[in-house]
Amino acid sequence: MLGAGERTSAAQGAGKEKQSQSDDYAKRRKLYEQISLRTGLEWPYIAAIDQYERTLSQAHPKTRPLRKSAVTGVYIAESAWVGELNPSPEDTNPVSIRFFHGIGQDGSGDRRADRDKDEDLLYSVTAQALKKGSALDDFGIGLWEYYHNTRAVQRVLQFAKLYKHYNRLDLSSHAFPLPLGSNYSFRSTWGYSRGWGGKRIHEGTDIFARHGVPVRSTCYGIIEIKGWNVYGGWRIGIRDLNNLYHYYAHLSGFDKQLKTGDIVRPGQTLGWVGSSGYGRPGTQGKFPPHLHYGIYRDRGLVEWAFDPYPLLRRWEREEYQAHKAKARGSASR
């Protein structure tokens, strides 16, 4: 167990980290509002472009390096910024960059298109997205023409929907997928072989619990899929702001009010633990009741599963700590 001094030090460290994150969100919000004033595009859409760019940079850190002090997550290759035939790779003149068909623009008003400046980077990508207009359909076309990827269009619009609904950037909190007061058990089952449906591996973590225990959203996100899958039975898939796809399978049923495209929050009930799957719609009982929980990262053109077990342990621990802190606060009043 931690001593009093260690607990105080840990609390101070967590406090500093939270303050740093809060400062980062404030800087980003200010940048989005500045770009919004220059382009006329609402800040949630600008934030969504930036967040999608950030997820790509996080997924490809070697090919999309960002400055340590960068506020934006936007990365634009040097050749795309100045133009492929531009003889000056460090060109910052908007006129000559435009002549060589580069996309770099002046977003700060200093008459320079500086690839190392947050305002110029984000303004330049936003301008590309607005080439066809600011109406939602036109904006979507502009996004597609820039990214040449329908998934990119979907992600930006999903992110914008979340930012617009909550009117804030800090949507990073999580919850454990089952109520902490329920009786459940789980361990790392990543990579285990599967016994039904051909040769394949287990891409997730199984959380065993009684039939009917509530299954909760682990994140803020958008429901992408809801319905039957021959392997997962009654399942639901949610996309979060980190471009992670959260997959909940083998449910006994869903919250009937939920539908595809709905926004969900951490801890919100999605359905209930069951044993559905491994057959045609309605198949039940081929295995003990449990929740199969998986996470997939969108890398731009493909999605890859990764082991969710460490995150589940982390979210379980953080939720326990939050409950204890709340109980201590109530007891001291």
From TrEMBL:
Keyword Nucleus listed: no
Q: Which GO MF terms does the UniProt record name? A: hydrolase activity
Q: Which residues form the M23ase beta-sheet core domain?
A: 201-299
Q: EC class of this enzyme?
A: hydrolase
Q: Where is this region: Disordered?
A: 1-25
Which Enzyme Commission numbers does its entry carry?
3.4.24.-
- Comp. bias (Basic and acidic residues): 15-25
What keywords is this UniProt entry annotated with?
Answer: Hydrolase, Signal
Which Gene3D superfamilies does the annotation name?
Glucose Permease (Domain IIA)
Q: What is this protein called?
A: M23 family metallopeptidase
Q: Which organism is it from?
A: Cohnella boryungensis
What taxonomic classification does the UniProt entry list for its organism? Answer: Bacteria, Bacillati, Bacillota, Bacilli, Bacillales
